[in-house]
Amino acid sequence: MLIGKKGSNSGIEIENLRINFSIQKTWDKNPNNSKIQVWNLKQSTRQELEKPDTRVVLYAGYAEDAGPLLIFQGDVAFAWSKFDGPDIVTEFDLKDGLKEIRDTTISVGYNKGVKSTQVLNDVAKKMEVPLVLSSNAPTREWKNGLSHHGSARGLLDKVAKATNLEWSIQNGNIQVIERGMVTTRQSFEISQDSGMIKVPEVKREAESQTGGGTKKGKGKAKDTPKKYWYGWEVNCLLMPTLLPGDRVVLNTKTVEGIFRIEELTHDGDNWEGDWQTKLTLVDPAKPLGDKKTAKGGTSSRGGSIADTQELEDASFD
To answer: Residue 183 domain-assigned?
Structure first.
């Protein structure tokens, strides 16, 4: 773990103390969160963590694999210390891109024909954050020009809405992809032979509509399912490089196909317990929450989804 200020050449490195982390990442434009606990920091380090806009970078991984890899970076939103017997435990909440999203304003006026790629690059430059723009992301052109005066976040929202994009900050980068689709990074395979824990659990949601009853209001109204759509929750050994929007190839006895990471959680403690990553996966062609059925079939851009009867008949032992 590294502690310091953004852009500084000096900082504090922590590697031999106990560190516990729980990291949540989503494709949402609000900052990703991380909760970290560190045992027995020096007083000067605890004081450093309490300073405004302190940045923390966390690396984690397996020694027999690629070693520690970047798993999260963010600004300290809250920090406090408490006594736990003879130990002092420092807890802090981090938010990825907190300072850039909160503090960056931009005032621009573009001539006719400005393209979305130029606007996105200008916003990223103003925020001093690298832009990771998917190579297959759609683009658009403003024939009558474009102007904006306000938060940089507001301009990102404007461009994303007009261009069918979604943006989020992931590990200090602005990630921009087509809405509901996947990044162009290399896909990851998850199976029983590549770190999967247990078996995938179906994540099913239904939109209901109220009906029934009589014209005079007598009788009970009934909630009848209108449409269903499916996703999967998958647990695996810690995979620190995964990000929301990444493509995952799922290969199990109950489900297989290509899916998009909708959200994920990394949990670990370097002194005890297992290190795990929990994923929520959806078919990128039929995303969770979209009012379309994901029953049956495959998609060239998504994965294979079992229908209701298959799910009921499947063995999850």
So the answer is: no
Which residue range forms the structural domain that includes residue 69?
A: 2-96
Task: Look at the chain and report how many structural domains it folds into.
Answer: 3
Distance CA 63, CA 21 (A): 18
Q: What's the whole-number mean pLDDT along residues 233-243? A: 95
Per-residue pLDDT band at 290 (split at 50, 70, 90): very low
The candidate with the shortest Cα–Cα distance to 203, out of 225, 227, 232, is 232
Q: Which of 31, 137, 126, 46 is nearest to 92 (CA)?
A: 46
pLDDT of residue 287: 54
Query: What CA–CA distance (Å, rounded) separates 146 from 195?
Result: 48
Q: Which of 34, 18, 37 is nearest to 26 (CA)?
A: 34
**204 and 250 both lie in a single domain:** yes
**Minimal CA–CA distance to 42: which of 69, 74, 75, 81?**
81
DSSP 3-state helix, strand, coil percentages of the chain (rounded to 5)?
A: 15, 45, 40
Selection from 288, 293, 281, 285 nearest residue 256 by Cα: 281
Using a 10 angstrom Cβ sphere, with 0-12 exposed, 13-18 middle and 19 or more buried, the burial of residue 149 is exposed
Q: Which of 96, 132, 99, 130 is nearest to 266 (CA)?
A: 96
Q: Is residue 268 part of a domain?
A: yes
